[in-house]
Amino acid sequence: xxxxxxxxxxxxxxxxxxxxxxxxxxxxxxxxxxxxxxxxxxxxxxxxxxxxxxxxxxxxxxxxxxxxxxxxxxxxxxxxxxxxxxxxxxxxxxxxxxxxxxxxxxxxxxxxxxxxxxxxxxxxxxxxxxxxxxxxxxxxxxxxxxxxxxxxxxxxxxxxxxxxxxxxxxxxxxxxxxxxxxxxxxx
Length: 187
Description:
Shape: globular
Largest sheet: 4 strands, antiparallel
Order of helices and strands: EHEEHEHHEHEEHEH
Number of helices: 7
Strand content: 25-35%
Radius of gyration: 16 Å
Distance between the termini: 15 Å
Low-confidence stretches: none
Helix content: 25-40%
Strand order of the largest sheet: 2-3-1-4
Number of strands: 8
Number of domains: 2
Structural class: alpha+beta
């Protein structure tokens, strides 16, 4: 099987002193799991790696189990391939259709598609000037007054949609794609 570039996004590590993991220890765990070219990006749980083409869900489960075994706490893990993350980067409607300020953009990655009925219960007009758009398993969030002031947080979407999610600012999404493309070019 050919090697593929993946990005793991860990939910809720190194936030407010909870679920603390040093990035060097996290990278070592990934290497021990047989994953290659492991690189971490910032302290909030972004790991780039190469591995045999396999199910992203299987990789996520394996990584979560490894974290539980080594660090003794549960961390939800989302794994996406480089093509998937690149599609998220290229598909942002707030950039493509409106050319909004990228500093005001975030992507909330859902671990599975939400139920359409749950999504329909959210009245987008109640959160203006903040806006969101669901495209596949990604919620694009535009917060003109900043993410720190929005109600459209990761926890909001998890509670309303009844799915696990993790959010990254647009700078992080862009940088993860850039780093993954560099890794791909080197291999």
